[in-house]
Design goal:
The structure holds 2 protein chains of 2 kinds. By secondary structure, chain A is α+β, with helices and mostly antiparallel strands. Helices cover about 30% and strands about 20% of the residues of chain A. The radius of gyration of chain A is 19 Å and the shape is globular. Chain B has 2 domains: about 80 residues, Ubiquitin-like (UB roll), CATH 3.10.20; about 80 residues, DNA polymerase, domain 1 (Orthogonal Bundle). Chain B has a 5-stranded mixed sheet, with helices on one face. In chain B, helix 3 crosses helix 6. In chain B, about 45% of the residues are buried. The chains are: A alpha+beta, B alpha+beta. The structure holds flavin-adenine dinucleotide, iron/sulfur cluster and FE2/S2 (inorganic) cluster (2 copies).
Chain lengths: ~325, ~180
């Protein structure tokens, strides 16, 4: 790891002061992604601001009947929280499908949102990568791209967002609360992560001088009919090849509300609202679910090694929706 | 190498070399000064002379470096020592009471839950963390919640049996999966 200076923020204001105007400054929370990338020499901050002592470590009820997950609550504490488990079982499941127990004990909710891609070329400083070094090219296009995107990619980058938690948050339509020198604001989940376009070096719409303070979950948790399905190379402690967060509300065998988001397929957690809307009013059965799967994948495109993901995603969507329809309680 | 060092020096900001911290390691308070970039793992092994905690991958991918911080299992390779200022750290060296092994250590011995032994300190610390988390009840749950510890020798069946033994309050040596 390269040398850097370190300071510990004692308050949110303190943290913002530390970050403002320091291009090479990064905040560190669990450290599980940032320190890994610093060891790999992919990220090279010259200053780290330790935010772990800030009072953002609580899960609280919101006035709207939802839950506010503090940015510094660990992934483990979030997944095991009784309120999250019972009201948002899909989220709890998604978090527990990610990383390992040790990592989840360190990883924070804020850090999980901002974790970076696992594209091998991004990690390998000896190869071109537009995300790591804008303008250098993309090693994955025409290279080994088994884990790469099938939706929303650009000619500049075909990386995927690796988070499991974020796929469930997309399906739940969570909101990200952030604060910065221009005050506080709320970013709808859909607008938090970006597609690569011609600036793949920018992962999210969080400004460099802002920090995440919390994630707000709306009251609607789809606890009765939801699931998170993760398909990967080994059954545990591996990133998703394709994952699906599926949530339904069903009355008299008909879908009255649907949520569908995919992981491992795009630069951001991929929620498809058109496919969700098309499900409403239809019978909660395999026929409707197959139509939804086709709709999500209508513009999917492979890059060679990852062509299999299109078929895999189609089947995973179908199965996740069927599991969600069948599930009564998690 | 020289060029790399020169490069490191060039990019290094002017920082105080050492930051004072205090940690309670295996019940003993330690005060020291550390460089900001020293991981907890390197501090334990190189400064505190506790080489029981192993470095496998140094990237969070193997679990060999698992220790307990304030009672919770974490990967010490992805944690900066400065960030743990004021915390209690328990390593494999701190589990036994005098000459009496911790029940999990004893269970690993009884079940022959290792071959080369390199992953073992991490496995045992992780298993101690798993028990106190209280989330694992079935064999499947143990397997899933121990997946953060890789064993290159493939001693998994006996590792799981050892943990099951402690979890069930029984640790019979005969419960070994592999009689060889
Ligand atoms: C071996 C391994 C396997 C993994 N497997 C999975 C997996 O299967 N599924 C999965 O989803 N994840 C997986 N992960 C990733 C893990 O979930 C993330 O590393 C973790 O969630 C990041 O959280 P953190 O608190 O450690 O972030 P840090 O490493 O501390 O920070 C990550 C980034 O977020 C920024 N940041 C952190 N907090 C804030 C904040 N409040 N405001 C603004 N910026 C902030 C930091 O500046 C940094 O850029 C794996 C990680 C490892 C090492
Ligand atoms: S896919 Fe994106 S992250 Fe991977 S090499 Fe190409 S530009 Fe870099
Ligand atoms: S050395 Fe820390 S996980 Fe491998
Ligand atoms: S006993 Fe050899 S790595 Fe596990």
């Amino acid at each position: 790891m390269r040398a850097f200076s370190y300071s510990r923020a004692e308050s949110v204001a303190d943290a913002l002061k530390g970050v403002v105007g320091h291009g090479e400054t990064k905040v560190v929370a669990g450290g599980t992604n940032l320190l890994d990338l610093m060891k790999a020499d992919v990220m090279r901050p010259t200053r780290l601001v330790d935010i772990t002592r800030l009072p953002l470590n609580r899960i609280e009820e919101t006035a709207e009947g939802g839950l506010r997950l503090g940015a510094l609550v660990t992934n483990a504490d979030t997944a095991h929280d009784e309120r999250v488990r019972s009201r948002y079982p899909m989220l709890s499941r998604a978090i527990l499908a990610g990383a390992s127990a040790q990592l989840r004990n360190m990883a924070t909710n804020g850090g999980n949102l901002l974790q970076r891609t696992r594209c091998y070329y991004f990690y390998d400083t000896g190869t071109p990568c537009n995300k790591r070094e804008p303008g250098s090219g993309c090693g994955a296009i025409g290279g080994v791209n088994r884990i790469h995107a099938i939706l929303g990619a650009s000619e500049h980058c075909i990386a995927t967002h690796p988070s499991d938690m974020c796929v469930a948050l997309a399906a739940l339509a969570a909101e990200i609360r952030v604060t910065g020198p221009r005050g506080e604001r709320t970013i709808p989940f859909e607008a938090f992560h970006r597609l690569p376009g011609d600036a793949p070096q920018i992962d999210t719409n969080l400004a460099p001088d802002e920090i995440v303070t919390a994630i707000d979950l709306p009251a609607r948790g789809f606890a009765a009919h939801s699931t998170y399905l993760k398909v990967r190379d080994r059954q545990s402690y591996a990133f998703a090849l394709v994952s699906v967060a599926a949530a339904l509300e069903i009355e008299d065998g008909k879908v009255t509300a649907a949520r569908l988001a995919l992981g491992g397929v795009a630069h951001k957690p991929w929620r498809d609202q058109a496919a969700e809307e098309a499900l409403v009013g239809r019978p909660a059965d395999a026929g409707s679910f197959a139509v939804a799967a086709e709709a999500v994948l209508r513009d999917a495109r492979g890059f060679g090694h990852n062509d299999f993901k299109i078929d895999l995603a189609r089947r995973a969507i179908l199965r996740a929706l069927q599991d969600a329809a069948a599930s009564e309680t998690p | 190498m020289d060029q790399r060092l020169a490069e490191l020096r060039d990019t290094a900001p002017a920082v105080p070399d050492r930051i004072p911290i205090s940690l309670v390691v295996n019940g003993v308070e330690k005060r020291m000064e550390v460089a900001a970039w020293t991981t907890l793992l390197d501090l334990l092994r190189n400064t505190l002379d506790l080489p029981g905690t192993k470095k496998g991958c140094d990237h969070g991918q193997c679990g060999a470096c698992t220790v307990l911080v304030d009672g919770r299992r974490i990967n010490s390779c992805l944690t900066l020592a400065v960030m743990k200022d004021g915390c209690e750290v328990t390593t494999i060296e701190g589990l036994a009471t005098g000459d009496v092994l911790h029940p999990m250590q004893q269970a690993f011995v009884d079940h022959d839950a290792y071959q080369c032994g390199y992953c073992t300190p991490g496995q045992i610390c992780s298993a101690v963390g798993l028990i106190s988390e209280g989330q694992a009840r079935t064999r499947e749950e143990i397997r899933d919640l121990m997946s953060g510890n890789i064993c290159r020798c493939g001693a998994y069946p006996n590792i799981i049996a050892a943990i099951e033994g402690v979890l069930g309050g029984t640790a019979p040596a005969q419960a070994k999966e592999d009689p060889a």
